[in-house]
Amino acid sequence: MANPLPNEEEIYAKIKKENITIHPLIWELINHHIGNDLYTINLIIGATVLDNETLNPEDAKKVLKHTKEIKDFLDKLAKITNLK
Amino acid sequence: METKKYKLLVIDDEKDICKFVKRLFSKKGFLVYTAFSGNQAIKIASKIKPDIALLDIYLKMGLDGLQTLKRLRKISPQCHCLMVTWDKAEEKRKGAKKLGAVSYLTKPLTVTQLYQVVNRFIKNKRKGDE
After folding, report:
1. Alpha carbons A51 and A65: distance in angstroms, whole number
2. CB of A25 within 8 Å of any CB in chain B?
3. Which residues in chain A come in under a pLDDT of 50?
4. Could you tell me if residue A1 is inside a domain?
5. Which pLDDT tens digit goes with each residue over B62-114?
6. B1-14 residue pLDDT tens
7. How far apart are CA B54 and CA B10, in angstroms?
8. How far apart, in whole angstroms, are the C-alpha atoms of residue B21 and residue A82?
9. pLDDT score, position A4
10. At the topology level of CATH, where does B7-129 sit?
């Protein structure tokens, strides 16, 4: 996880207190898209690291492809949910 | 992870997932087969009779994961079926267990988690063979 925001705990407290939720359909999209991309990245990197191997350029390109797919998905989601 | 040549069938419509799971377990001595749809999985399973299957619940085309599981269990009743999905819904989990799945794994999985579940299978298999 990235370094926490200075007010991150307050944000979590506010979400909990005000019962701010994400629609299940949005969770479905997030879990499907990000879940599959992260799983693939984990497979590529995990197998390399656990076996003390070096990441080859083709696999590195795959990691970049899947990170870009996460970004594209989040951009699309932000656009469709009118996140400014 | 030492294995005799167990046959592992990976069923996922994400081709990269199939490719990298195949690479991962081929290095560990498994005979790995991949299928990108439930229908393809059934054809392959009929021929090879897998020992273990890693099966995505959400398959875009043809049979879905649960339908595939049901047919897979008929073709290869000894097959140790592990369901993989992002969906934590209890009804799906129960449905999969009812159809004979031995584990229900939530994406995104780590390589260590995958090794653990497969190792568990190998240990149980060895106990059963003794």
Report:
1. 23
2. no
3. none
4. no
5. 899 999 999 999 999 999 999 998 877 777 788 888 888 888 888 888 999 99
6. 555 689 999 999 99
7. 5
8. 37
9. 87
10. Rossmann fold (3.40.50)
**Model pTM score:** 0.87
Chain B residues inside the 8 Å CB shell of A27: none
Residue A17 resides in a domain: no
Interface check B112 vs A, CB under 8 A: yes
Contact between B111 and A42 using a beta-carbon 8 Å cutoff: yes
Q: Where do the DSSP E strands lie in chain A?
A: none
Least CB-CB distance to A35: which of B20, B24, B108?
Answer: B108
Contacts of B97 (CB under 8 A, 6+ apart): B104
Report yes or no on A49 lying in a domain: yes
Number of domains chain A contains: 1
Question: Which chain B residues have a beta carbon less than 8 Å from that of A31?
Answer: 86-87, 107
A13 part of a folded domain:
no
